[in-house]
Design a protein that fits this description.
Strand content: 15-25%
Structural class: alpha/beta
Number of strands: 15
Largest sheet: 5 strands, mixed
Order of helices and strands: HHEEEEHEHEHEEEEHEHEHEEEHH
Radius of gyration: 25 Å
Distance between the termini: 91 Å
């Protein structure tokens, strides 16, 4: 009897072990819905580039302002009914997709161009604006078109689409990467690079502030901007709400007003 009881007990624990081993961990790999998490938390974490005037930069009081900052506040107003319910997280062009894909921020609003390659890494909202790749040179430069940059040194910002575009448009150009626009601009002014290429909406700020530089008139690509966030089922509801908010802003002419207010209406 004792032997039989022992066998039954062992069989019982064996069955329990098999059950837990074979049963799917229902909650272990289920991500919490990000939209619901934001609602419960009461604010939205937005990744923003603070070296991208007029899109994101610090004012004299240390506050983050700009086109992207205002757009973030419109999103907060739509989602949370309060435009101040935003926590800005400084990012760079080279780490912004990592921040979004790993959930370190809820969304990234940072002049991110929607591309097929990037859509493999993160999800995007519908486009909220569009830019064009431009070339910035010194005013006294002999450069008249992008073809004149053959065998010249051209500055790009790491993590942007400009590097790939330049390699296609001018394969013989010497592309030099920078971590910030300020660094690239300083190098252009010193004469150590011939040009900077990036979105016209970003480069136009240098022309506004400094008559010693100019933009070439032609645009060499179309760059649709989207709001980026983590891929997966946890962001489906968030995407739906952000897409609706963007459509609402476009219908109410908010995007055009932001472009004009921040002097990015450069087309």
């Amino acid at each position: 009897m004792k032997k039989t009881a022992l066998i039954l007990i062992l069989m019982f624990f064996a069955l329990i072990a098999i059950y837990f081993f074979l049963s799917p961990a229902k909650d272990e790999f289920v991500e919490e819905d990000l939209y619901n998490e934001i609602m419960q938390r009461g604010y939205i974490k937005v990744g923003i580039n603070t070296d991208s005037k007029p899109f994101g930069f610090y004012d004299k009081n240390g506050n983050i302002i700009g086109y992207d900052a205002d757009l973030s506040r419109y999103i907060a107003q739509y989602l949370l009914k309060n435009r101040e319910k935003v926590k800005f997280v400084p990012i760079t062009p080279s780490n912004r997709l990592i921040k979004a894909s790993t959930g370190q921020v809820d969304i990234v609003i940072s002049t991110v161009t929607i591309t097929p390659a990037r859509q493999e890494v993160v999800s995007f909202s519908i486009p909220y604006d569009i830019a064009g790749q431009a070339v910035l040179v010194k005013s006294n430069s002999s450069i008249k078109s992008i073809s004149d940059l053959a065998n010249q040194t051209v500055g790009v910002i790491f993590g942007t689409t400009a590097e790939k575009n330049m390699k296609v448009l001018v394969p013989t150009a010497n592309v030099r990467g920078f971590t910030s626009y300020a660094e690239a601009y300083k190098t252009l002014k010193s004469g150590n690079i011939t040009a900077i290429t990036s979105d016209d909406t970003i480069l136009s700020r240098f022309v506004i502030d400094d008559s010693s530089v100019r933009l070439l008139p032609k645009r060499y690509s179309k760059e649709p901007y989207g709001i980026a966030f983590k891929k997966g089922s946890s962001t489906v509801k968030l995407k739906e709400n952000i897409d609706f908010a963007i459509k609402d802003m476009q219908q109410k002419n908010v995007i055009n007003r932001l472009r004009k207010y921040w002097n990015v209406d450069c087309k």
